[in-house]
Amino acid sequence: MNPFLTFLLLLIPIFFILVTIKRRTSQKFPPGSLGLPIIGQSLSLLWAMKANTTEKWLEERVKKYGPISKLSLFGNTAVFIYGQAANKLVFTSDGRTIANGQPASSRAILGERNLFQLNGEDHKRVRDSLVSFLKPECLKQYVGKMDGEVRRHLEMHWEDTQKVTVLPLMKTLTFNIICSLLFGVERGGRRDELVNCFQKMMEGMWSIPINLPFTRYNQSLRASAQAQNIVKELIHEKRVELEKKGASSHQDLITCLLSIHGKDKAALTEDEIVHNVMLVMVAGHDTSSILITFMVRLLENDPTILAGVVQEQEDIAKSKSSGELLTWEDLTKMKYTWKVALETLRVFPPVFGGFRKALKDVEYGGYLIPQGWNIFWVTSMTHMDANIFQEPSKFNPARFENQATIPPYCFVPFGAGARICPGYEFARIETLVAIHYLVTRFTWKLCCTDDTFSRVPLLVPNQGLPIQIMPKKLPSH
Is the residue at 154 inside a domain? Predict the structure, then answer.
């Protein structure tokens, strides 16, 4: 080969390296400090979440560094962003630029093949599989079964008592609904074991990923392994039922996922089924139970809104014969109740924020987010922005009379765009059915005057929201 040509070929990669270095150095990295190795700002954020000072922690960060800053959380270098543009970046970027990227602790506990970790075609394939069971057309047939679970729960835990603690009971209810409708696990030893594993597993979801004996992270990993073994047993049993052709493909979520295969639909691997069942357990359990709990608190604090919800629900109850289950048509009449739920989600979003990962260098807000860094975004920063929601601290369900008036990517309790939560409709049905029976069967008073809450990492009201309950006289038909 010509020596001059050889020399040119050697110069080409050097040229590209120099251009890349120059481009990176010409761009500004976000301001901020990475803190101590591994720990970074993890402990200070976790302390703020537990002490109910998260908003102050974020405001101080914004005041010090501006709308974008670098930090280190849960073992990963990250960039904190917030606002409408940040939400749009997170929810509209394709999987080749910004990927789902949960903290290492969450990823290890839930599994690498869960929907929050997948991107591109894998994300679409698994999401479409989940939606095939969770879409409204399918969920219509489960309203009656959910009604039965709620009634049974109230008979066991609310009737013939004068005081209850709402959050733990709502968690019991939502977990039983998940076990029954999504996993086909009946009441008994296996469901109890799954509950225990799940509770231990949740404690380490946002923790520093140091896997040493007696750490919260280590205990959560062991609980996750136990839960995954139970799910694998369920998968084996349901596969046998399908092969014997004795099971409906839509009798529960696991059976539905096992049934997906054919010319147009690729089958899910066992890991994908297991890891997404784990994800559904987390997403479907805590968010709905927290929403219902905070609605109970807010309804007691606002008699006018309570009266509107009670009127709507009692009108529906009076239209039913004794013992008749709620139907999909009944849920469509609960418009005001759902507006109250949406306003609750605006003021008290159960999910604090989330993480993504930059697969390429990303230019945002005049700064460089380097490839490989995490992106940490926070929901509540737009929900409580006075430029978006007038008097944001005021609880006002009328904001949702016309959701089209809310600017896009500003109200995101369930995500947005292609990343919107596939369980949105399931959560809506669950919430409306539970609230219907609570307000038509009981009145209540708050036992705790301190209305603070903490995040561990999800919302927990002070003392779990203890209330004194009084049964209502059921309407005669």
Answer: yes
Domain range enclosing 43: 34-471
What pLDDT digit, counting tens, does each position of 15-32 carry?
A: 443 344 444 544 688 999
Residues at the annotated binding site? 421
Q: Do 219 and 212 form a contact (C-beta atoms < 8 A)?
A: no
pTM: 0.84
Go through the chain and tell me how many residues it has: 477
Cα atoms in the 13 Å half-sphere on the side-chain side of 99: 21
Measured CA to CA, the distance from residue 208 to residue 36 in angstroms comes to: 12
pLDDT digits (tens, 9 = 90+) for 398-427: 999 988 889 999 998 887 776 677 888 889
Average pLDDT over residues 126-135: 84
User: Number of structural domains, the chain?
Assistant: 1
- Residue 191 covered by a domain: yes
Report DSSP letters for 421-436, one per residue.
-TTHHHHHHHHHHHHH
Distances (CA, A) of 360 to 19, 51, 103, 352, 405: 16, 36, 18, 26, 34
Nearest CA to 198 out of 212, 181, 178 is that of 178
Determine, yes or no, domain membership for 15.
Answer: no
Residue 129 belongs to a domain: yes
Extract the annotated binding site for heme. Answer: 421
CATH of the domain at 251: 1.10.630.10
